[in-house]
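Q: Please design a sequence for this.
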């Protein structure tokens, strides 16, 4: 099979609706050159016809684009000999969204779901020499409104309501962290596939035996053979037979086994058996070895097509069983029979313009997640089924993927045409992604049950019904599970996130979105521990991005707290007021932008620490895994904005990033005030029992030591244990400083401060910073210091940051890439 990429030679222009379409396409003037994939917005920006919508208030000036229809055309030359092939198919891997296409004047398809690739046979329509492909993209806004008029307005949280009628990334309609940018155009590749016979599909589930001693890879190959029509009847001898060669190589490149199978009825199958497989593990639990499956289609000696897959051998289970010490049931992922605490984050598309997210960008973000000791990323349902590069990075780095189907915060229709489109979408995406070892769970939607519940429209005792007031239950409870059961039976499927059946956001069953802090009730973040769930799949606290990121979109006179531009780049409901309210509760007022950024990032860091500490405490071991995961909302941004992201659009980590990394490290310490003392606990996330030394010191704010305790602990494997209550002798404003040492090295630190911080009289801590060589930094202090943040501009990777420093406890940090740049340091004053 040969693939001819149609990436160049494209043009686009706005359609004048008053003129006949044919005439509009035939016009010579007014076309803008573009390459594919790219949205119309990107082409217009490149042609200087649109100001970058990420800068200032420019988003507003980009709204007309989505309200218009657009014409795309591509002129390409084809060599005559290509037309001898059995088949030439036009493949559009993703069209955004309402598209009609013509090849050399003949209509070849219509498409209205950006998640369904289109493949159309076009050999008969092609000619040697010049050819022209035309695509009309109609306004998704207009078509959505037309559908809404016919079928009725549906309820939504976020975005504009007609979005539920259009199978387009829902965040394009605007979200509480993203701009409204109604992109359009070919958002993935457009290709011609030239073949006589081709591999249509390879199904290759890797199944590991319960004792982990064997694995099988059951390969099924589907073939399409156009060439056989060219062979005279009766001449189908051996030389014309299609053969599939399959070879499996181990992680070290050595051949495990190989076979060749004669294609019969357009398919070929073979099951590989692997003894003592090298297992694939999540980040932090072991390595990520991959086996390579090569599939080659041949006729005679001629190689017609080939595919290659990197497979991971891992045994996956989602355990929902009664807890012995608490009400309800677990929501626990096991990989290779090992219970995994799924610390991690929610993932949104990394750009409003998805086609410009490079594999390197995906890789950097997934690497940042892995460096933050994350184990799981949840691909949230209001975005896109991500590019292969994302899943490959997750496979490589051991990030488990929770994959939502693309429905979010809405009541979706379930008419026949809509269901058909969703079925095609789900089948295409499940087929594309199912071989990835990182893929862990399919999930029907984001918060649609919660929304229905809030409107009194979800009744678990009734059966799903497309004509009910919550029609899409037929999609989440019948259609999607049927597609998953048929195409990917080895993975669990959940109806929604959150979901448990009855109240859709239970704290004792299923997963839970803990928006008690920030969104509902604006509860103090210090209360996070109370909002625990069996698996917290969302929680978060918003903060401003890095100063350099603000400089990328705000002009110098707009760089102050409360500026129109900075507030415009904060899309959350009451976003500015909520940040202000958490600041007012906890910190002294600040007026300068630097201080304001620091304060908001300080609060985000404290909030996420409070959540992770409070919840990992419930990683209680066999029978007691009462909280088995916590995914922060959100890891990334799609544009430069104040949001819940812990890494901003330009990949600059916020202070909370480092705190999350520490809280998700193998070892962690937790402390909470209790009566006139405090309670402490320790998490051992390793899979072995560990002998450790726990040290607790108590300091006055002036740096006087008022108490020391030490205890040797035998930490059971892979669970948290309670250390009990400690008195806080001395009264007054004291800071507890805890360390955990294994073999003499500090493996975890934590501190507990009197709060609110705004009431404290914090003296100068007298921090000493020494730089050894060019990248090693030694930090010491005379008095306790809170929230010590180092910065030195882009390109520096801090091994740790946003530290609490205590007297007599030097912390050594590496700053990769620092060279001889100056370091700015600040702390809570
Ligand atoms: C969640 C998400 C998003 C939203 C976020 C912050 O529940 O599912 O819809 O962006 O909250 O409000």
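A: Design:
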């Amino acid at each position: 099979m040969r693939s001819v990429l149609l990436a160049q030679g494209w043009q686009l222009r706005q359609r004048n609706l008053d003129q006949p379409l044919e005439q509009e396409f035939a016009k010579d003037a007014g076309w803008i050159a573009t390459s594919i994939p790219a949205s119309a917005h990107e082409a217009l920006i490149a042609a200087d016809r649109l100001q970058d919508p990420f800068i200032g208030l420019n988003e507003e000036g980009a709204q007309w684009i989505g309200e218009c229809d657009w014409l795309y055309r591509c002129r390409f030359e084809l060599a005559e000999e290509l037309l001898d092939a059995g088949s030439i198919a036009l493949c559009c891997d993703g069209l955004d969204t309402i598209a009609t296409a013509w090849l050399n004047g003949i209509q070849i398809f219509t498409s209205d779901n950006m998640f369904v690739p289109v493949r159309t046979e076009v050999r008969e329509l092609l000619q040697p020499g010049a050819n022209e492909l035309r695509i009309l993209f109609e306004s998704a806004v207009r078509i959505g409104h037309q559908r809404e008029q016919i079928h009725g307005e549906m309820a939504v949280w976020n975005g504009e309501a007609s979005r539920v009628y259009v199978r387009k990334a829902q965040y394009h309609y605007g979200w509480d962290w993203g701009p409204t940018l109604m992109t359009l155009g070919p958002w993935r590749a457009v290709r011609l596939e030239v073949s006589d016979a081709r591999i249509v599909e390879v199904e290759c589930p890797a199944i590991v035996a319960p004792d982990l001693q064997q694995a099988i890879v059951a390969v099924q190959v589907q073939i399409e053979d156009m060439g056989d029509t060219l062979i005279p009847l009766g001449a189908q001898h051996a030389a014309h037979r299609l053969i599939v060669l399959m070879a499996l190589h181990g992680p070290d490149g050595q051949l495990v086994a190989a076979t060749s199978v004669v294609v019969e009825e357009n398919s070929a199958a073979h099951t590989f058996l692997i003894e003592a497989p090298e297992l694939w593990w999540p980040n932090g639990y072991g390595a990520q070895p991959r086996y390579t499956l090569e599939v080659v289609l041949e006729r005679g000696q001629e190689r017609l097509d080939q595919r290659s897959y990197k497979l991971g051998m891992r045994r996956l289970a989602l355990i929902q069983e009664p807890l012995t010490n608490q009400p309800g049931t677990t929501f626990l992922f096991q990989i290779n029979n090992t219970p995994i605490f799924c610390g991690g984050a929610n993932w949104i598309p990394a750009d409003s313009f998805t086609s410009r997210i490079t594999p390197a960008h995906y890789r950097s973000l997934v690497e940042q997640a892995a460096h933050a000791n994350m184990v799981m990323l949840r691909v949230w349902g209001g975005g896109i089924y991500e590019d292969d590069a994302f899943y490959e990075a997750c496979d490589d780095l051991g990030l488990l993927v929770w994959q939502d189907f693309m429905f979010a915060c809405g009541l979706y229709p379930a008419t026949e045409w809509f269901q058909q489109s969703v079925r095609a979408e789900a089948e295409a995406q499940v087929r594309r992604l199912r071989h990835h070892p990182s893929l862990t769970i399919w999930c029907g939607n984001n918060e649609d049950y919660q929304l229905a519940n809030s409107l009194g429209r979800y009744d678990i005792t009734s059966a799903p019904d497309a004509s009910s007031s919550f029609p899409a239950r037929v999609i989440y409870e019948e259609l999607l599970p049927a597609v998953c059961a048929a195409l990917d039976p080895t993975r669990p499927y959940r109806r929604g996130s959150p979901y448990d059946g009855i109240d859709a956001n239970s704290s004792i069953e299923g997963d839970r979105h803990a928006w008690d802090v920030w969104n509902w009730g604006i509860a103090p973040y210090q209360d996070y521990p109370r909002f625990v769930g069996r698996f917290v799949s969302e929680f978060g606290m918003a903060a401003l991005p890095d100063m350099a990121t603000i400089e990328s979109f705000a002009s110098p006179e707009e760089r102050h707290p409360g500026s129109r531009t900075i507030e415009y780049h904060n899309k959350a409901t009451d976003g500015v007021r909520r940040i202000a309210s958490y600041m007012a509760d906890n910190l002294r007022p600040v007026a300068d932008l630097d201080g304001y950024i620091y304060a908001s990032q300080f609060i985000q860091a404290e909030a996420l620490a409070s959540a992770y500490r409070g919840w990992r405490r419930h990683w209680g071991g066999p029978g007691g895994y009462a909280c088995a995961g916590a995914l922060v909302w959100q890891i990334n941004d799609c544009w430069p904005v104040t949001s819940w992201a812990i890494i901003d659009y330009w990949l600059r980590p916020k202070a909370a990033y480092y705190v999350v990394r520490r809280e998700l490290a193998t070892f962690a310490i937790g402390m909470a005030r209790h009566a006139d003392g405090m309670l402490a606990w320790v998490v051992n996330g390793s899979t072995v029992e560990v002998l450790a030394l726990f040290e607790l010191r108590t300091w006055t704010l002036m740096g006087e030591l008022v108490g020391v305790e030490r205890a040797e602990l035998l930490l059971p494997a892979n669970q948290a244990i309670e250390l009990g209550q400690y008195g806080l002798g001395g009264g007054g404003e004291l800071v507890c400083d805890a360390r955990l040492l294994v073999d003499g090295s500090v493996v975890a630190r934590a501190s507990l401060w009197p709060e609110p911080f705004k009431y404290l009289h914090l003296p100068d801590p007298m921090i000493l910073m020494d730089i050894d060589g060019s990248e090693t930094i030694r930090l010491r202090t005379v008095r306790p210091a809170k929230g010590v943040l180092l910065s030195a501009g882009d390109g520096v990777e801090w091994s740790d940051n946003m530290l609490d420093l205590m007297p007599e406890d030097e912390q050594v940090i590496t700053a990769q890439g620092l060279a001889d740049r100056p370091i700015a340091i600040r702390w809570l004053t």
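Q: Thanks. Anything notable?
A: Residues 155 and 455 are 9 Å apart (CA to CA). Residues 158, 175-177, 382, 408-409, 446-447, 513, 519, 538, 633 surround beta-D-mannopyranose (CB under 6 Å).
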